[in-house]
Write a structure and sequence with these properties.
It is a single chain. This protein starts with a helix and ends with a helix. The strands form 4 sheets. It has a 7-stranded parallel sheet with strand order 3-4-2-5-6-1-7, sandwiched between helices. It has a 6-stranded parallel sheet with strand order 8-13-12-9-11-10, with helices on both faces. It is globular and about 100 Å long. The chain folds into 5 domains: 199 residues, 3-Layer(aba) Sandwich (Rossmann fold); 149 residues, Rossmann fold (3-Layer(aba) Sandwich); 95 residues, Orthogonal Bundle (Arc Repressor Mutant, subunit A); 82 residues, DNA polymerase, domain 1 (Orthogonal Bundle), CATH 1.10.150; 102 residues, Arc Repressor Mutant, subunit A. With 725 residues, it is an alpha/beta fold.
Length: 725
């Protein structure tokens, strides 16, 4: 078929007037019966490379795909460009016998041009026998990285595909993936016995994506603040566990963010519903495990957040690649702490040794990427075997936008290269870090490397520093990691030149995620310090209203509440309920004049409020509060209530005080009547009505010990319930 026909077919089926990148050349190769390997970044148009040749070839193309949800989406997409519903089908475990029979009938009738199958379905004997009896145009393997043990999503069943293909028939194979390091690429071709394949490899650079790694502190608060700043834009948040997916989705919902969970533990109908709602923009955020997103055809995802750092750099690239597929804005935010990497390393225990070694090396690469101060785009592209000039990043990563200081490191790099050379290029990065920093550990002593020259020559710096030197020297091309031997360092030809005649080498100061690990990283110019000016104004307002209402000032709002207003600057009644000691009732009754004053103050002084960071937590113990109020309504003694909840009476009274302080009315008259006569109650009540402060210590001193602290606390509850709520 000539190229002109391809252009006409493209226009006929898909309405496009031109091909993207290498699409036309790839399709020509497939049509000419050549094995073809396509490495094309997400959004580059991989699917077209097998969809168009399938539509214009005789017979049926068999497309192996790893996810049922992905198959359904792609089948729907093909059906949308054809008049015949039978043009595309999928064959997997979700079909019943009747549906399976219909699929096979359409194939035999020559109606079906594309059949998507799961690898598990392909291995079934009855299906193999069926495929032997039909005309197959070619085999396509989507998400081909699943073949490689070095890939981020290895699936053992994918390793058998070549044997099954050969059992069925001999037709060309096209393998496609968005992520393949040189090692993974070779592994795929070798396993499929297609080392002769023409390889089409587009650039891995996604220039519209912004990469940022943040220390993992107050993650939920940071995520909520970030999403609120994005309005209704679409985004995906990835978590490693189903439990975290559920918790985070619920937390986002509580904080007014339109989010839904997605993970393999949900039933298929719920997963499909949540996915469709995201695609149809009925929901703006999906919180998911990595099961979500592979091949999801939503071009306007504006942000991808990793709550947990992924298990490999391939996973990171694949998942961040779901942002900005239309070429528009795409922000990739990831949260990192080394403890998470250690946790993932523990999960490797018990697995075969080779698998553990691979897993550790992949984790080492994602740690290096997270901790480096080098251009992140340069790091990613180097990992995939592509050279990149950091100046071309255009500040589209945090390290280029906020560069760290540099210092001359020529001597440090030379010491590293000399250490690798003297050990005959036999060790991995960790060993050289121990050697250069002078660590007298068994790994060094067993090889007698502590006797070598230069042992401890860099002991003024720690292991983390030398790790950084290795990372930056690898990216510069002076050394390389031998993947076959799980990351042993080798000196490159360029490195040998450096050793003979060293030149200037600027080392960049690395991020240190181990320092101040608990210190919050979010700051706000307006809300970072106590605002005394606003506090004085709020105190004056409270005094003015208290005189009008003829009630003590503390009945309106207690001092801790006023102080909290000077940090949070609430300007609506809803925001007022986030203030310490203020519930819905108190906000509704007294909040309006205070929010009016604060709003005017914020506008007049250009205050940058930290209100975005006020995160409502999911209250798991609210049932106990309700139970406490119900027991009071039933007029149970406070002692009995305490015993039923395993608490002392002091703790019960403290909980009631908190409930009342936030604006909820509680009637404990029945209990007070048993311990105080009416005259005593009137005397204490009158005191609180005229007091300038709600301090119980001052009240106790005022009555010269006539009433106990417990009696005064109970009367304070009665007074505040009746006067303030």
């Amino acid at each position: 078929m000539v190229k002109l026909d391809l252009g006409a077919a493209l226009k006929k089926y898909f309405g496009f007037s031109s091909f993207k990148g290498d699409q036309e050349a790839i399709i020509n190769d497939v049509l000419q019966g050549n094995n073809t390997f396509v490495i094309m970044s997400t959004g580059g148009g991989k699917s077209m490379c097998y969809q168009l040749p399938a539509l214009i070839s005789g017979g049926t193309a068999i497309i192996v795909s790893p996810l049922i949800a992905l198959m359904k989406d792609q089948v729907d997409a093909i059906r949308a460009v054809s008049e015949d519903h039978a043009v595309a089908h999928f064959l997997n475990s979700s079909l019943n016998k009747t549906e399976t029979a219909q699929v096979k009938s359409d194939i035999v009738a020559g109606k079906t041009k594309l059949l998507y199958v799961a690898p598990e379905s392909l291995t079934k004997e009855e299906n193999i026998n069926f495929f032997k009896g039909i005309e197959i145009s070619f085999f396509a393997i989507d998400e081909a990285h699943c073949i490689s043990e070095w890939g981020h999503d290895f699936r053992p069943e994918y390793r058998r595909l070549r044997d099954i293909f050969e059992e069925i028939t001999t037709v060309p194979i096209i393998a496609l993936t968005a992520t393949a390091t040189p090692k993974v690429q070779y592994d795929i071709q070798k396993n499929l016995n297609m080392l002769d394949a023409k390889v089409y490899k587009s650039s891995f650079n996604r220039g519209n994506l912004y990469y940022q790694i943040l220390p993992k502190r107050e993650v939920e608060k940071q995520i909520i603040k970030y999403i609120r700043s994005k309005g209704d834009k679409s985004g995906i948040i990835y978590c490693l566990s189903r439990k975290k997916v559920e918790e985070l989705a619920e937390l986002l919902q509580v904080n007014g963010i339109n989010a839904l969970p997605y993970h393999a533990g949900l039933d298929s109908s719920t997963r499909a519903k949540h996915q469709d709602m995201f695609l149809m923009e009925d929901v703006s955020v999906i919180v998911a495990t990595i099961a979500f997103g592979m091949g999801i055809d939503k071009s306007d995802v504006r942000f991808v957040i990793h709550h947990d750092i992924p298990k490999s750099l391939e996973s990171y690239y694949q998942e961040t690649g779901r942002a900005g597929r239309d070429g528009g804005e795409g922000e990739c935010i990831s949260f990192y702490r080394y403890k998470d990497v250690e946790k993932l390393e523990k999960f490797l225990q018990g697995k075969p040794v080779a698998e553990q070694e691979i897993g550790r090396q992949l984790l080492n690469e994602i740690s290096s990427f997270s901790e480096t101060s080098v251009c992140r785009r340069k790091m990613i592209l180097h990992y995939f075997g592509e050279e990149f000039n950091a100046e071309d990043c255009n500040e589209m990563c945090d390290n280029c936008r906020h560069p760290k200081e540099k210092h001359e490191g020529k001597d440090r790099v030379l010491h590293l290269l000399q250490a690798i050379d003297v050990m005959k290029e036999t060790q991995r990065a960790k060993h050289y870090c121990l050697f250069l920093s002078g660590a007298e550990v068994s790994d060094i002593q067993v090889y007698k490397h502590d006797k070598l020259p230069n042992f401890g020559i860099g002991k003024d710096k720690g292991i983390n520093f030398w790790n950084a030197v290795i990372r930056q020297t690898v990216v510069s091309g002076l050394i390389s990691k031998d993947i076959e031997s799980y990351g042993v360092l080798k000196i490159t030809e360029e490195g040998r030149k450096f050793m003979k005649k060293p030149w200037s080498f600027l080392l960049i100061k690395e991020h240190d995620y181990l320092v101040n690990d608990e210190e919050p990283i979010i700051t706000s110019s307006g809300g970072s310090a106590f605002d005394q000016v606003l506090f004085d104004q709020l105190v004056d307002l409270r005094k003015s209203i208290s005189k009008q209402e003829k009630i003590p000032p503390f009945v309106l709002f207690q001092e801790p509440s006023l102080k909290d207003m000077c940090f949070q600057y609430p300007v609506t009644l809803e925001e007022m309920t986030n203030i310490q000691g203020v519930g819905n009732g108190k906000a509704a009754r007294y909040g309006a004049p205070f929010t009016t004053l604060i709003k005017r103050y914020v506008e007049d002084n250009n205050i940058e409020r930290p209100q975005d960071m006020v995160v409502k937590s999911i209250v798991r113990k609210s049932g106990l509060k309700v139970q406490l109020i119900q027991n009071i309504d039933r007029k149970l003694s406070l002692e009995d209530i305490g015993r039923s909840q395993g608490k002392k009476i002091e703790e019960v009274i403290e909980e009631i005080e908190q409930i009342v302080a936030s604006g909820t009315k509680v009637n404990i008259n029945y209990y007070i009547d048993d311990i105080l006569d009416s005259d005593s109650q009137d005397e204490i009540y009158e005191y609180f009505s005229e007091a300038e402060t709600d301090s119980l210590k001052i009240a106790y001193d005022e009555f010269e010990g006539e009433f106990s602290e417990e009696e005064l606390r109970l009367m304070w509850i009665k007074f505040m319930s009746e006067m303030a709520n």
